[in-house]
């Protein structure tokens, strides 16, 4: 078992640190936010992630996991130091390495022995070589530093599961001994290990996310054609997925991808390609399709009503995916802003993500699904939470003024919808039901005139 420091406690750093502690290592997690560190030290997770908080408390109580803001206490005498800070997107689409550079400088100042620095931050190809050169120049004779690239493949909402049950572990290193030591850290997981040079490891991360984003945009393009030719995208995707060369994952039509990884990494890879004078036409199209897909529900609603001005619209779901409170690059942000621009009154509900959403969205927030739907002219399903998927369809017709649903995640079967009293628009499937809008407009006008 090793002594490990983890610099950065976002999704990647915190999950990595907690899970390594649960594997038996002694882990110190370092972050500059004093309030955040204080809460984590008491076993409270700053992010919503299933299973994480329970593992935090367990390993704190058993003495394998601690938190600090003090690099001078957390860095010296470590066997391995994990670098897990954010690399946000800059305006030109490239990765901002400010936090990486700052963390590397902090680490270099406090190294006092031979150590392996494992970079889990997603960085452009060649970055880890630059980090190695920096350590070579600034650590001197205090200790030898070997930099290893160990990209993460954690999905928000299932990050703990992915850590323990991943498809593979990628280790990029120039020093075979350093690669073997990092492999040993994960030995108890019994997962396949792929060892490469550092640059290939960096590229594997970007290429993997870009490929998955491509599958999503591809199936969304097919869904648009299905709507025009009268096919059902779910049958099409199922038939495609039975081909083992294609597979079923990431073939669910919807309103596009979001989150902290796919948008950032696809844009960054386009920039990386541009830096070596390669125009990545395919990936540029993937990004374009996704941007267009995120406004699809608003387009459908506007075409159906003619105008959304003055309409009451319920948004169900704000997180970019279920089982997370993360709204970074979420479709909900684009949808809400488009609805407001069209003059609609928006009421939103999400089981988990409303505190984060309230910081960036200027909409009314409801305390429940039923409250969000109350007297709505249209309901837009943005995130496929189980709470929405298991909702009795009668709730829509009972609560809404106009029982019209625009489902961006295909949460319901068409067979179930056919037995309801809804007009239902989904992605890549036929429209079910038809509401007489003139009837509802007449009712509204009558009530306005007679009270």
From TrEMBL:
EC category: oxidoreductase
Family annotation (Pfam families): UDPG_MGDP_dh (PF00984), UDPG_MGDP_dh_C (PF03720), UDPG_MGDP_dh_N (PF03721)
Sequence ranges assigned to domain UDP-glucose/GDP-mannose dehydrogenase C-terminal in this UniProt record: 314-414
Superkingdom in the source lineage: Bacteria
Pathway(s) annotated for this protein in UniProt: Nucleotide-sugar biosynthesis; UDP-alpha-D-glucuronate biosynthesis; UDP-alpha-D-glucuronate from UDP-alpha-D-glucose: step 1/1
Positions annotated to bind substrate: 153-156, 205, 250-254, 258, 321
Catalysis performed (reactions): UDP-alpha-D-glucose + 2 NAD(+) + H2O = UDP-alpha-D-glucuronate + 2 NADH + 3 H(+)
Swiss-Prot/TrEMBL keywords: NAD, Oxidoreductase
Family: Belongs to the UDP-glucose/GDP-mannose dehydrogenase family.
Name of the protein in question: UDP-glucose 6-dehydrogenase
Species per Swiss-Prot/TrEMBL record: Pontibacillus yanchengensis
